[in-house]
Design goal:
2 domains; binds guanine; alpha/beta; 6-stranded parallel beta sheet; Rossmann fold; single chain; 3-stranded parallel beta sheet; 11 strands
């Protein structure tokens, strides 16, 4: 059997259209505005930031980019964030990761006012998530859930294996799945016998950025396979899954590109829109 391909582009468009419609029909006196902070000159980060800002424009949000040199001190970044926290015309603040080594991701994320932390990476919002409050859930984690919600899958009692342990997706997704009564395994590069774990998975979510990390022999028949990895091979964007072979064994699979990525951008818009509405009522 060949797997059903989960179409992220189509779902992303639906979510965007819904937000654009709500923005258009709302009668707030101002528009939501997302501030995006980009530190250094990482070409992948530049591309992601551009995609996020173009999406903001498509749904009628405003957006402003702050480009900072890679040598910037933590204090200078924190001063900018404080300024944006106090600016009532800014509703969301996103600091693109990864950051240069001299900046602590924890300090930078925790400087963002929790209601403006549209990535959901601050200790406050991760803490809320641990209590089951998904108001500002990481956009990538929400994207994985959104894609899985399009298929007939009862999360309860299913074994999810998340390959990779990042703050951006694995940890928040783990909390969200636990809240749905799933059984969750989160692996890292020291995990022994990864195959033994992945072979038991009903759902595999791979978020490492290592091409062909997950092969056919590592999964059971009819697995649901979600690919969050992004790498470049011969100038082509590829994920972590050996897609061509896995699609013959899986029941559902997400492609790269065109799977989790586009939905993640729409989920960021969704977080920004929801956060904006709360701020307008304060
Ligand atoms: N780097 C990779 N993914 C993300 C994301 O979702 N948000 C931010 N801020 N940085 C990232």
């Amino acid at each position: 059997m060949t797997a059903h391909i989960l179409d992220g582009k189509k779902l992303a468009l639906e979510i965007e259209q819904q937000i654009a419609c709500e923005v258009n029909e709302s009668n707030f006196s101002i528009k939501p505005k997302l501030a995006v902070i980009l530190v250094g000159e990482n070409s992948a980060s530049q591309l992601y930031v551009e995609k996020k800002q173009l999406a903001c424009v498509r749904v009628g949000f405003e957006t402003q980019k702050f480009e900072l040199p890679s040598s910037i001190s933590e204090q200078e970044v924190l001063v900018l964030i404080q300024k944006l926290n106090q600016d009532s015309s800014i509703h969301g603040i996103l600091v693109q990761l990864p950051l240069p080594a001299q900046l602590s991701t924890e300090h930078v994320m925790n400087a963002i006012l929790p209601i403006k932390d549209v990535d959901g990476f601050s200790s406050h919002n991760i803490g809320l998530l641990a209590h089951g409050n998904e108001f500002l859930l990481s956009a990538t984690a929400r994207s994985v859930l959104r894609l899985l919600e399009t298929i007939p899958l009862d999360f309860k009692g299913k074994h999810f294996v998340i390959v990779g342990h990042t703050l951006v997706v694995a940890r928040p997704l783990g909390f969200a799945l636990v809240a749905r009564d799933a059984t969750v395994t989160i692996t890292n590069k020291f995990t022994q016998n990864l195959s033994d774990l992945t072979q038991k998975a009903d759902v595999i979510v791979s978020a490492v950025g290592k091409p062909s990390l997950i092969t056919n022999e590592m999964v059971k028949e009819n697995v649901i396979a979600v690919d969050v990895g992004i790498s470049r091979v011969n100038n082509k964007v590829v994920g972590d899954l050996d897609f061509e072979n896995l699609k013959e064994k899986a029941s559902y699979i997400t492609p790269v590109p065109g799977g989790v990525g586009p939905v993640t951008v729409s989920c960021l818009l969704e977080n920004t829109w929801n956060s904006f509405k709360v701020q307008m009522q304060l």
